[in-house]
Design goal:
Length: about 60
């Protein structure tokens, strides 16, 4: 995967996390809200990890 593809994937993960958070806000079921928030949190963490990996590939130490 090249840097552009990786950055695109990171952006997609963040967008999906935002969508899930918005869906959680709209949910009236507490269990569904918790499930959506948890999934959004995991996607956000994954996007942050991929972003860190991207940064290392762009700016090697």
């Amino acid at each position: 995967m090249n840097a552009g593809e990786s950055q695109g994937r990171t952006r997609q993960l963040r967008e999906k996390a935002q969508e899930l958070n918005k869906a959680a806000e709209r949910s009236t079921d507490p269990e569904e809200r918790r499930r959506l928030q948890e999934k959004a949190r995991r996607l956000q963490e994954q996007s942050e990890q991929e972003s860190k990996t991207d940064d290392r590939n762009v700016f090697p130490l």
